[in-house]
Amino acid sequence: MSLKKWTETKDTLSFRLAVLYAGIFALTSLLAFSIFYYRIHSLTMGQVDEELLEEVGEFSQVHIGEGIKGVREEMAQEVQEEAPDQIFFRLFSEDGKLLASTDMTPWGELPVSSADIMSASMGDPVIKTVKILSRGHHARVIHAAIGPELILQFGMVLEDVEDYLAAFRNLFIILFVAVFVLSILIGGFMGRKALSDVGKVTNTAREISKGAHDRRVDVSRQYREIRELGETFNSMLDEIQVLIRGMKELNDNVAHDLRSPLTRIRGAAERAIMKDTSSQDFREMAAGIIEESDGLIEIINTMLDITESEVGVMEISRTEFDVTRLAADACEIYRPLADEKGVTLRMEIQGSLMFTGDRKKLQRVLANLLENAIKYSDPGGEVTLSASLDGGMFRFDVRDNGIGIPEGDRPHIFDRFYRSEESRFEAGAGLGLSLAKAFTEAMGGAITVVSTPGSGSVFTVVLPR
Ligand code: ADP
């Protein structure tokens, strides 16, 4: 594996998972083996020690029955039965003098500890494991008193026990290595399998970044976590696509709405150049251009206001004022327009309602709703502005019995530049409701509409007190 490939592999989550998996496995199996091994070791040694103590008991009996001579004979006989390299006996006096010994050739130099003899003579048998230097094995050795001032040293090679434990250790090492390698492979496989679905998400993202905007992650037949990731990713893409589409439409609408007045301005100027124009014509043309420019400036200012309040940078002032007064002023402003159209404009507010908030913004919201209500009413229609306290909120209703809004248009009327087919004959840029919504929401409120085509609409603004 090249260095680059290794660095890439080393950084993958599946590799890390495999290593972690194998590491945890190695640690737990080592721990389990150690406990198991320690237990087996102490059980085996316990058995050996029992044998040693039994033997000492037997020798005590021999000494009682047959004296030191009998002990010597028994020592020789047992070594002969077992083989001199398997067991040995030595007999000491209390002061450490060697009284008798079996063949010690296979055992090499085995030091005699006067402390052990002393402890044994006081009735405390001492059992120890000592190394047999010449044989690479250990022996278990007991020092115990078998009679007054008579200490027996009895040793037994641990070859069988050690071979048994070594075989056990070797078996564990082989098993450990095999299962460790297997656990790395299984961990790697499982990690890769689990993360292969993440790869699908990555591939989809890659394809989308290359232009396939309609691609989505296939979320069928996947584990729950990955499915949730895929679903979230897909819904995020849908959201982005809606936003992109909205921006595109907005661009188209802005371009469209700016193009018509600009074309008119250009046409007027062109006509003024082409024909013999009197100063009166020039004045009229300038007045027309000013009017068109005002319309354009208003569109641009409204757009800026909407954006500012949508992104939350617009300042919201808080002053206390009488809502009845504000509503009455708004009705006064729109009464000429209503009269001109033959629409009755009414206000329904009882007493004076004090409100703390942004007066100017509320005024613009109500103005836009009133203007629409009048605009989209037929002569003889009726528009009512009412205000009331609804729970802890202020509620404003602008009701008309005009043309109403078709169901298909209702989800879009608050979008910038949206105008329904029926409203094309009326003046407007399609920004009034967007502004009303942006301002209402910036003030912490909400705006809703209930409408029946042919019967009229009710726009409701709810604001916190
Ligand atoms: P504009 O009035 O300039 O077209 P608005 O944003 O104020 O833009 O309104 C968007 C659209 O919502 C209008 O074009 C119209 O179709 C619809 N609308 C708004 N208010 C009413 C109403 N009171 N009655 C019927 N339709 C309405």
- Could you list the spans in which at least 5 consecutive residues all have pLDDT below 50? none
Given the structure, what is the number of helices?
9
Please give the radius of gyration in angstroms.
51 Å
Which term fits the overall shape? rod-shaped
Give a written overview of the molecule:
- The protein is 58% helix and 18% strand.
- The protein has nine helices and twelve strands.
- The model has no long low-confidence stretch (mean pLDDT 88).
- The structure holds adenosine-5'-diphosphate (ADP).
- Adenosine-5'-diphosphate binds at residues 368, 372-373, 376, 400, 402-405, 413, 418-420, 423, 428-434, 457.
Please write out the topology:
Layout: H1 3-10, H2 13-82, E1 87-93, E2 98-101, H3 114-121, E3 126-132, E4 137-147, E5 150-157, H4 159-209, H5 224-274, H6 279-311, E6 319-322, H7 323-341, E7 344-348, E8 354-357, H8 359-375, E9 382-390, E10 393-400, H9 432-442, E11 446-452, E12 456-464
Parallel strand pairs: 7-9
Antiparallel strand pairs: 1-2, 1-5, 3-4, 4-5, 6-8, 9-10, 10-12, 11-12
Adenosine-5'-diphosphate is lined by residues 368, 372-373, 376, 400, 402-405, 413, 418-420, 423, 428-434, 457.
In short:
The chain has 465 residues and is α+β, with helices and mostly antiparallel strands. It is built from nine helices and twelve strands. 58% of the residues lie in helices and 18% in strands.
